[in-house]
Write a structure and sequence with these properties.
The complex is a heterotrimer of chains A (154), B (468) and C (636). Chain A is 64% helix and 0% strand. Chain A has a domain at 57-127. Chain A has 154 residues and is mostly helical. Chain B is globular and about 70 Å long. With 468 residues, chain B is an all-alpha fold. Chain C is mostly helical and 636 residues long. Chain C has a domain at 559-633. Chain C has 26 helices and 2 strands. Chain C starts with a helix and ends with a helix. The chains are: A mainly alpha (154), B mainly alpha (468), C mainly alpha (636). Chain B binds chain C through residues 147, 150-151, 154-155, 158, 191, 194-195, 198-199, 202, 206, 212-213, 215-216, 218-219, 258, 261-262, 265-266, 273, 276-281, 391, 395, 415, 418, 460-463, 465-466, and chain C through 67-73, 76-79, 595, 598-599, 601-603, 605-606, 608-609, 611, 613, 615-617, 619-620, 622-624, 627-628, 630-632, 636. Chain A: Its EC number is 7.1.1.-. Chain A: It is an enzyme of class 7 (translocase).
Chain lengths: 154, 468, 636
């Protein structure tokens, strides 16, 4: 029989195995065309090196907000599990205690899920790419000329 | 208790109703929800319950306050006219936020534990920050929201610090625990306790816009869309005073000698700052902001005196004040909407000025009457509810023997008459644009109801007193 | 609950009528207006009758609480009605006579363009009158009191295009306010003394007070000042004759049958207080007899049919108060009831005459109308017979009972009372003879138009005539039904002053002699009038004719109006002018100065609102620091 720490060890092993499995599986499925951008450190599309005091896209905050929400939700689930998961109470009530606790937490998660669904349906999670509109100017001067001027006084 | 559950569910439902093509279902649905909450509120009538390990409490007083808050929001929502003329508006979200904020307000009314008070205040405040800034393309609205948020966060910090200190001193978050600690006042309490109490008071006084913590009020009320100003100046104020009343009456009566004088001074400053500054305003909306500060002052009289009559006085005053304020803002919305379009003035302030009311009563007798009634009630002229509200307030001060405060209050109500009557004079004795304004039936019902309530309570104030 | 609902319905029905006719004025079809108004009052009347039938004979007062109205500190004023013998009687009179007059108004006012408004006001009047009568405390009575005053004002000035009518309305309003001030002060004194305004509680507390208590005297006198205004006693009577500017049904309903008796109702209601204050009763008696004689003498020479009736009303009100002053409360109420019958009848009859004469009110231009208006003539004659105190009609019994009690009290007052009764008889028969007998003295056109009034007008006349004829049966001499019925009301008075309510000490023979004397005097006056106006065919001289000095004085109503004008109105006006010019300088300067100060400080305070968040937060922190300093560093 495993000790308590043995169970923990199993968890850790399973976690590693999962990661290995996923990465390995992905390797087989995905196309492999690396470039500089892809190989740089992932920072949600921002430049990893340079001044940190720059304007971030406002959408990050929405995503971060939703993310924090579910993080906090997870934090709440731990005390829930320890406070309500009492075998003695479950036995004493013929299992009803367990069902009650489960219903409660499902309600809790459903409320948050509804929020996520709302945000999703409203399209707040969609990342709208900026589509800069270049002004078109009616002029007889050819574009090359401008370019040359720009080059010279760079 | 029931309203909290119901409103939470309703608010989520309302959010998803927003996906429907037609916006027209939202307004009636919200009104229906509010009525359902109001009915559910009274299910526990004449019973006292503690919920969630003594976190929340319902008794007749809390139910009456809840009813006032629900009634006010019912009137405000009815006046909102489902934002028909504004394409960019998100009525479903506004209504949902209003319902959520009501949950916070009801928590502030029925809390029995400082943590619940904090949660309630935050739910209400965050909702208010959003509503203040809901007119996204209006710079003034944005500015107001940011100011409100910054200062509100500052006050919340102070309040939270106060709670922490109180916990440190008394070892309890519950009102009963703090009260039992305070009952040993004779033997001397720790300094931390007093500091904590003061900070908690400052935080709450900020929320009800008492001077000298009132600076946010005019800017925020002025910048927010009028409909939400009406909501803020009634529901938030009522909930704030219910919270203060409950806090002081339940936990701190033993140390009255400590905070009584502070509140009395704050009351006097609030009355003077609110009333005197209001005199100089040219914008009606800004005048109403200062007037709401001054009414916070009148309500504070009952708290500073904290006598047996205070509960009744505060309940009556909040109801009278809420009804009058909502109908005044309702008329203002109609007038600005109509006249604003005609004048095409570049200055957004100009159509909220007193001049916008010139000659209103001739072509729109109902609007004139509604505005005149609410102005008279706010000024405290007899035969309106406001008169009895002031009367009860003043009698609490007499009971406590705070004559100097009473003198200030009476002088300031005289000043108040000046600026309230400016509107009446503009409406009845000046000539101005005299096209009749189209009034939708809902508006008409709300205004008539407000007039009837104001005058009814003014003629028979005993009607409400039998309630609790 | 049943009785509570019924009681609430009694005043609510007329109010409903008022709302329908008032809001729907010009929209409700004219045919319906009268029906709605009359039915509302009739329904109230039927409810009252059912209440009356089911009321236990010896029962105490039933209080019907409707809702808590005002509570301030220890003072609680509920909105409640009190149903007892007194209020039931008044209710019967108000709704009963009211119904008849509403019916009459349909015929009388039908062609007026303000018909709907008129009926609405009448209903509103009934509503307030019912509040006045039914209220279980002085404050509700005061609301009714003010309300009927308002309706009276509105109805006197009903034809508001005429300036002198408006002046009359204003005069009535102002005079009544003077009385109301007394009433209001009385209520305040009651609150101060007893801590309540509920009749039941006040009287219960009052019975334990000693006779001649000064506070009670003050209260009784203050309340009587109120009664003087409303019931037109000297010196506040001059508004009532002027009030005849209103449409005739109004004069009948408000200024004869109901509203003006409110003062008597109030005194009877407060009988305990008055019994406790004999000095107050003496004052009442003196004012009453002065009023009775003064008004009767003025009535002798009036030529306007309604003015004569108006002065006779003032005089009869004097008689009622005279009865009250001799603690003959029952007799006073009895006269209120019979007077309501015959005075309403007389006014309505006068209205019928005016209607027939195309709005002519001067009796010098009438005469010989009995052939053209037979119904009106017969009923009017019955009314005249009744008011003159001639047997066997109602006025005889009620006036006689008053005089009998007064005789017991004071022989002088009795003799003066009999004199007044003779005067009444004379001028009433003068009126009758000049109007209905002799030759027609009007224009040919008026003669051509003469016609009997429609049924809606004659039916009330007939009913009222019957009531005036048999009304005396309510309280026959020697312990009638009324005195037995009203006994519980005076229980408190009996307790505090048993002697005043002891069995009459007069022998029966004396009583018959007294009756014979007063009836005889009235008969003599009748004969005198007959000789003058029928045998000699005298017609009063026109306004410009020369008159002897005393005649001149009486004809001009003792110059009381002129006296008031010179002694009160002008000084007040000049005082007002003085104060006004004083105010120009001092008061205005003060007020403007304060206003300026407030504005300046406002302008300065406004600068604090800079709009900068940094400053706001700084101010907040500074204030917090100050508060901490106040609390922790400076101890006080």
């Amino acid at each position: 029989m495993l000790s308590d720490f043995g169970t923990l060890l199993l968890f850790i092993l399973a976690a590693f195995a999962f990661i290995a499995l996923v990465l390995f599986g992905a390797r087989f499925l995905r196309p492999d065309r690396p470039n500089i951008e892809k190989n740089s450190t992932y920072e949600s599309g921002e430049e990893p090196v340079g001044n940190a005091n720059i304007q971030f896209n406002i959408r990050f905050y929405v995503v971060a907000l939703v993310f924090v929400l579910f993080d906090v939700e997870l934090v709440f689930l731990f005390p829930w599990a320890t406070v309500f998961g009492q075998a003695r109470l479950i036995e004493a009530t013929g299992g009803r205690w367990g069902w009650f606790a489960l219903t409660e937490v499902i309600l809790f998660v459903v409320v948050l899920a509804l929020g996520l669904a709302y945000v999703w349906a409203k399209g707040y999670l969609d990342w709208v790419k900026p589509q800069p509109k270049l002004p078109t100017v009616e002029t007889k001067v050819p574009m090359d000329l401008y370019k040359q001027v720009n080059e010279r006084f760079k | 208790m029931f309203p909290i559950v119901l409103l939470s569910v309703f608010a989520v439902v309302l959010l998803f109703l927003g996906f429907l093509k037609s916006r027209s279902v939202l307004l009636p649905a919200t009104l229906l929800f509010l009525v359902a909450a109001l009915v559910a509120n009274f299910l526990d009538w004449n019973k006292t319950y503690l919920y969630f390990n003594s976190m929340l409490r319902t008794d007749n007083l809390s139910m009456v306050f809840t009813a006032i808050v629900l009634l006010s929001s019912f009137l405000v929502v009815a006046l909102s006219g489902s934002f028909e003329d504004d394409e960019a508006a998100q009525p479903a979200e506004y209504y949902a936020i209003i319902l959520f904020s009501l949950v916070g307000a009801i928590m502030m009314i029925g809390y029995e534990n400082l943590v619940m008070l904090f949660v309630g205040v935050e739910i209400l405040s965050v909702a208010m920050y959003i509503l203040t800034g809901s007119d996204k393309r209006n710079l003034r609205s944005n500015e107001a929201a940011l100011k409100y948020f910054l200062m509100g966060a500052f006050a919340t910090g102070i309040m939270l610090f106060g709670m922490a200190l109180l916990y440190g001193a008394s070892g309890s978050f519950t009102l009963a625990g703090i009260a039992s600690y305070a009952s040993h006042a004779q033997q001397g309490l720790s300094l931390i306790f007093y500091v904590g109490l003061l900070m908690l008071l400052v935080g709450l006084l900020f929320k009800v816009s008492a001077a000298p913590f009132h600076f946010w009020t005019p800017d925020v009320y002025d910048g927010a869309p009028t409909i939400f100003t009406a909501y803020m100046s009634t529901v938030v104020k009522t909930a704030g005073f219910a919270a203060l009343l409950h806090l002081l009456a339940a936990s701190f009566t033993y140390v009255y000698s400590f905070w009584g004088i502070i509140l009395a001074v704050v009351t006097a400053i609030t009355l003077i700052a609110g009333n005197v500054t209001a005199v100089y305003q040219n914008s009606f909306k800004r005048m109403m902001a200062y007037s709401s500060i001054s009414h916070a002052g009148y309500l504070l009289i009952g708290l500073a005196a904290l006598s047996a009559q205070s509960r009744q006085a505060i309940v009556f005053y909040s109801l009278a004040y809420s009804i009058a304020t909502i109908s005044a803002f309702g008329v203002l919305m109609l007038v600005t909407r109509q006249r604003g379009m005609q004048t095409l003035s570049s200055n957004p302030l100009s159509n909220e000025s007193f001049d916008a009311f010139n000659g209103l009563a001739k072509q729109n007798p109902l609007l004139g009457l509604a505005m005149a009634t609410s102005m008279l009630s706010l000024a405290g002229i007899p035969l309106t509810a406001g008169f009895w509200g002031k009367f009860y307030m003043f009698s609490t001060a007499v009971e406590r023997g705070q004559i100097w405060l009473l003198v200030v209050a009476v002088l300031m109500s005289a000043v108040g008459i000046y600026y309230y009557f400016r509107v009446i004079i503009a409406m009845y004795f000046r000539d101005g644009a005299t096209e009749p304004i189209r009034i939708s039936p809902v508006f008409r019902y709300v205004l008539v109801a407000a007039i009837i309530l104001t005058i009814g309570l003014g003629v028979a104030p005993g009607l409400l007193q039998g309630l609790f | 609950m049943q009785i509570g609902l019924l009681c609430a319905l009694i005043p609510l029905l007329p109010l409903l009528g008022f709302v329908i006719n008032g809001v729907g004025f010009r929209r409700v079809p004219t045919g319906l207006v009268g029906g709605i108004a009359t039915l509302a009052v009739l329904a109230s009347f039927l409810i009252v009758v059912s209440l009356f039938m089911s009321f236990p004979a010896e029962g105490g007062p039933q209080i019907v609480p409707l809702f808590d109205w005002i509570s301030v500190g220890d003072l609680h004023i509920p909105f409640s009605f009190q149903i007892d013998q007194l209020s039931l009687l008044m209710l019967l009179v108000v709704t009963g006579v009211g119904t008849l007059i509403h019916l009459y108004s349909i015929g009388y006012m039908h062609h007026d363009e303000g018909f709907g408004k008129f009926m609405a006001f009448l209903n509103l009047f009934i509503f307030f009158m019912l509040l006045l009568v039914m209220g279980a405390n002085y404050v509700i009575m005061f609301i009714g009191w003010e309300g009927v005053g308002l309706c009276s004002y509105l109805l006197i000035g009903f034809w508001n295009k005429n300036v002198s009518y408006n002046n009359a309305a204003r005069k009535a309003f102002v005079m009544n306010r003077i009385g109301d001030l007394g009433f209001l002060l009385g209520i305040f004194t009651i609150i101060n003394t007893f801590g309540t305004v509920e009749y039941v509680d006040v009287f219960k507390q009052a019975t334990s007070l000693p006779m001649g208590d000064t506070t009670v005297l003050v209260i009784a006198l203050l309340l009587f000042v109120g009664a003087m205004g409303k019931s037109a006693q000297v010196p506040l009577y001059t508004w009532l004759p002027d009030a005849m500017a209103g449409p005739t049904p109004v004069s009948a309903l408000i200024h004869a049958a109901t509203m003006v008796t409110a003062g008597i109702y109030m005194v009877v209601r407060s009988n305990v207080l008055y019994t406790l204050a004999p000095q107050a009763l003496e004052v009442v008696g003196i004012i009453a007899i002065i009023t009775a004689l003064l008004a009767a003498s003025i009535g002798l020479l009036q030529n306007d049919i309604k003015k004569v009736l108006a002065y006779s009303t003032v005089s009869q009100l004097g008689y009622m108060f005279l009865g009250l002053s001799a603690t003959a409360y029952t007799a006073g109420m009895f006269h209120v009831i019979t007077h309501a019958f015959f005075k309403a009848l007389l006014f309505l009859g006068a209205g019928s005459v005016i209607h027939a004469m195309s709005n002519e009110q001067d009796i010098r231009k009438m005469g010989g109308l009995r052939k053209a208006l037979p119904v009106t003539f017969i009923t009017f004659a019955i009314g005249t017979w009744a008011i003159s105190g001639l047997p066997p009609f109602a006025g005889f019994f009620s006036k006689d009972e008053i005089l009998a009690h007064v005789f017991e009290h004071s022989k002088v007052l009795w003799a003066l009372g009999v004199l007044g009764s003779g005067l009444t008889s004379f001028y009433m028969f003068r009126l009758l003879f000049l109007t209905f007998f002799g030759e027609f003295r009007g224009t040919a056109e008026q003669k051509h138009h003469l016609h009997e009034s429609p049924a809606t007008m004659t039916i009330p006349l007939i009913i009222l005539a019957i009531l005036s004829a048999v009304g005396g049966a309510l309280n026959l001499p020697g312990g009638g039904w009324l005195s037995h019925f009203l006994e519980p009301i005076f229980e408190g008075s009996r307790q505090v002053n048993p002697e005043a309510f002891a069995e009459s000490t007069i022998e029966h023979s004396t009583e018959y002699v007294l009756m014979a004397v007063s009836a005889g005097v009235a008969l003599l006056a009748l004969i005198a009038a007959y000789v003058m106006y029928i045998s000699r065919k005298a017609v009063p001289a026109s306004d410009e004719a020369d008159r002897s000095m005393p005649e001149q004085v009486i004809y001009n109503k003792y110059y009381v109006d002129e006296l008031y004008e010179a002694a009160i109105v002008r000084p007040i006006r000049s005082m007002g002018d003085t104060f006004y010019s004083f105010g120009e300088f001092a008061v205005d300067g003060l007020v403007n100065g304060v206003a300026w100060l407030v504005k300046q400080s406002s302008a300065q305070l406004r600068r604090l609102q800079s709009g900068s968040i940094g400053f706001y937060v700084f101010a907040m922190v500074l204030s917090i620091v100050l508060i901490f300093a106040l609390r922790f560093f400076i101890r006080f």
